[in-house]
Amino acid sequence: MAKEFRFGVGIRSVKSTAALQQKARRLEGFGFDVLYVPDHLGAPAPFLTLTAIALATTTIRVGTYVLNACFYKPALLARDVAELDVLSGGRLEVGLGAGYAREEFEAAELPYPSAGRRVDYLEHVTTYLKKHHPSVPILIAGNGDRLLTVAARHADIVGLTGANPRAIVDPLAERIEFVRNAAGDRFADLELNLAITAVPADNSGIPDLSLTRRYAPTLSHEELLAMPSVLTGSPRDMADTLRGYRETYGLTSFTVQDGHAESFAKVIAELR
Q1: Which CATH superfamily is domain 6-271 in?
Q2: What is the reported pTM?
Q3: Neighbours of 196 (CB within 10 A)
């Protein structure tokens, strides 16, 4: 039996408590399953923002997409995780990544380790949280071999991100097969998540590719449109695309940005 779909939405700005909580209730009403906050300097503070959201909602889960693991000591992070899980009524999901923006490390007055050391530290933080809070789902998102190996071995949800390598015919299938091999027997229990970067905002069926282009600046317009993270067409067309992703790749979890939420709500309605 196919796994049920789950849909997440990310919030990147906060104007006031009232506006944030109103938006959260609206997104909950749209049918989203989880509301995420990222972890970047200059963006909202994740745990404070998610606490305000949790106190204003009843069913939508709350989570991070994703925390920069290198910004945190495991025991201190575990304390915040424990409190937010209680305050949310057990609705917390913790998304983790290895961090990539050197300028943010420098602004935080933290050393910028090599990519390998950042992934090693991500694994250290992940295993600590799994030991001390085994009931809180862990999402690990990324694209590289070492990071996806950690995700396959330790996470509950694997977030697939990154631009299309030109040399691979189906890079999404290649990454999922990599996760399958690294996960072994636990692969069947993993939830596979895809970050959606472009969704049509009107009846034209044509998406705004500005966010996608930011992550893949060297790709052509046609190559961007062909990326799995880009959805085109009517809500029914997009729903059919996601059904195809589930059948072909086993993807059942999809995350959009709040600017896409109203348009994507029509896709959710098609799938439920």
Answers
A1: Luciferase-like domain (3.20.20.30)
A2: 0.96
A3: 25
